[in-house]
């Protein structure tokens, strides 16, 4: 092996040990394109890099951009699998549909993710909770200033070796409700993973962070009374009474993103025998539950952050500690169950893993310099 190849291998080892979140893009990206005349083409896998963009690009002017976030995990045998790629592909299609954008078929989406992962397989870390985070972005790319559906789209699939986004230590979050702004209203784009939703929430999130919180707990846009979700994660509440422990999470009725982590946890909670219902909860009931001790835990969940406790809630001028402020047992147990499936420590009963590469000992790949490793 040349010195250069060795130093890049050492560098990659270092990145894989401590990847952080979205700090180091992989050497390659996948690209899928759509043209009104010729339809879908690709995927191609290309070296990571910028491509020139016409200043008229439709997507930039009108926010015609939707994205996904999914992960590939290294299993116990060294193989690498995507977690629920078809479901992420379908959701990208629904997000696109809401913005009158081209709907990529889910199998093309999965194929692009799989080709990319196979190419950058050696970037996939294998530590507890670690993954390769994949960010597909579908953008309307026609150079045209008129407000109408684009005749061209480009979807780039980026990949990053990743720890969970709030850190591998899963320190509980502090969240606060917004008093002025809202994130979504029924009939709007709240359910779509579109760029505009994040633009709409960033101002409030930034102010929350300046006030010492990690995130915003959004309330419904009409009455500002019902708990919805965080800016990038769904929420669950854990209640305890004389009948035992039960979980609730707000229903998906168009204003929150249909999280696949949320959906997986609904299933896993059922497997464990924890009763869980999708129901609306008033912020006042949350406050009352924290005070009386009946609300024992709150946690947030999403692909990037996995499952993370909410230890503190600022709302209505009060700053409240949930439980003792540390992670509770239900939160820890559900995160463990999810990561065990994702990282192959327990059987994949629900068919969520899509295997991309075989066991490490039998895998070969081509690195950036064209050499082959085994
Ligand atoms: C992506 C996202 C989620 C979580 O979805 P997952 O599929 O679990 O990653 C929740 N809320 C919002 C606003 C999101 O953007």
Features:
374 residues, disordered C terminus, single chain, binds pyridoxal-5'-phosphate, nine-stranded mixed sheet, D-amino Acid Aminotransferase, Chain A, domain 1, eight-stranded antiparallel sheet, 2 domains, alpha+beta, globular
Please tally the helical runs, counting DSSP H or I stretches of 4 or more residues.
Answer: 8
Rg on CA atoms, Å: 21 Å
Beta-strand segment tally: 19
Characterize the overall form: globular
Order of helices and strands: HEEHEEEHHEEEHEEEEHEHEEEHEEE
Bound molecules: pyridoxal-5'-phosphate
Largest sheet: 9 strands, mixed
Oligomer: single chain
Cα separation of the termini:
13 Å
Poorly predicted segments: 361-374
Tell me, what is the CATH class of the largest domain?
Answer: Alpha Beta
Query: What is the CATH topology assignment of the largest domain?
Result: D-amino Acid Aminotransferase, Chain A, domain 1
CATH superfamily of the largest domain: Aminotransferase class 4, branched-chain amino acid transferase, N-terminal domain
* Helix content class: 25-40%
The total tally of domains equals 2
- Overall residue-averaged pLDDT value: 94
The assigned CATH architecture of the largest domain is 2-Layer Sandwich
């Amino acid at each position: 092996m040349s010195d250069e190849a060795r130093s890049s291998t050492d560098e990659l080892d270092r990145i894989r040990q401590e990847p952080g979140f979205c700090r180091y893009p992989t050497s390659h990206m996948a690209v899928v394109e759509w043209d009104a005349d010729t339809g879908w083409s690709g995927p191609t896998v290309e070296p990571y890099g910028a491509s020139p963009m016409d200043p008229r690009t439709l997507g930039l002017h009108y926010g015609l951009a939707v994205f996904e976030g999914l992960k590939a995990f290294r299993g116990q045998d060294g193989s690498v699998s995507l977690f629920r790629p078809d479901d992420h592909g379908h959701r990208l299609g629904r997000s696109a549909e809401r913005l009158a954008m081209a709907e990529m078929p889910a199998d093309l989406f999965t194929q692009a993710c799989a080709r990319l992962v196979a190419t950058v397989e050696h970037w996939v870390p294998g530590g507890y909770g670690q993954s390769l985070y994949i960010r597909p972005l579908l953008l309307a790319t026609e150079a045209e200033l008129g407000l109408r559906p684009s005749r061209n789209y480009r979807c780039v699939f980026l990949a990053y070796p990743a720890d969970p986004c709030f850190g591998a230590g899963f320190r509980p979050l502090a969240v606060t409700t917004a008093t002025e702004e809202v994130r979504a209203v029924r009939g709007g784009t709240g359910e779509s993973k579109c760029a505009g939703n994040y633009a709409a929430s960033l101002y409030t999130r930034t102010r929350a962070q300046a006030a010492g919180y990690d995130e915003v707990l959004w309330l419904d846009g009409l009455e500002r009374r019902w708990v919805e979700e965080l800016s990038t994660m769904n929420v669950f509440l854990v209640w305890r009474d004389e009948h035992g422990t039960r979980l609730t999470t707000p229903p998906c009725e168009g204003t929150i993103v249909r999280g696949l982590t949320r959906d997986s946890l609904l299933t896993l909670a059922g497997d464990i025998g924890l009763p869980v219902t999708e129901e609306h909860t008033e912020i006042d009931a949350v406050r009352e539950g924290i005070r009386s001790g009946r609300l024992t835990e709150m946690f947030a969940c999403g692909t990037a952050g996995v499952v993370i406790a909410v230890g503190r809630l600022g709302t209505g001028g009060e700053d409240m500690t949930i439980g003792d402020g540390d992670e509770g047992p239900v939160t820890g147990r559900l995160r463990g169950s999810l990561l065990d499936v994702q990282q192959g420590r327990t059987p994949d009963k629900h068919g969520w893993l899509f295997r991309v590469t075989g066991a490490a000992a039998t895998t070969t790949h081509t690195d950036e310099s064209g050499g082959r490793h085994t």
